[in-house]
Amino acid sequence: MPKIFSGSSLQDLSQKIADHLGLEPGKVVTKKFSNQETCVEIGESVRGEDVYIGQSGCGEINDNLVELLIMINACKIASASWVTAVILCFPYARQDKKDKSRAPISAKLVASP
Asked: Which GO terms of type biological process are on file (predicted)?
């Protein structure tokens, strides 16, 4: 059975998806340190599991993106079989090509596995 986790920006939608599939959403604890660094803890085993993580690229874009990247990394190092990010409103999509010399292609950086 797949595991469904949610970043802080999509908790309601992830709950509805899990309910529709007859699954319990995965346990995740997200907090901020006093210096505003994000801390994410996956609260259950994902070893050998297919994991889906829902997060939005809207609102606090950089915070949501960092939270998603930390969640993906946490699942990878916990030996998840496959990790799929379900991203509503892909962040940095406007920066998908080089418009000036020495300009980064930020969309490619965000999309890299």
From this structure: 5-phosphoribose 1-diphosphate biosynthetic process; purine nucleotide biosynthetic process
